[in-house]
Amino acid sequence: MDPRPEELKTAFKSKAFDVDAIDDLNLEMADLMDQSNEISEMMGRNYNVPDDIDEEELMDELDALEDLMLEEEAVGAGEVPSYLRRVLSHTGSHTTASA
Question: Which end of the chain is more exposed for a tag (fewer CB within 10 A), N or C?
Answer without folding.
Answer: N
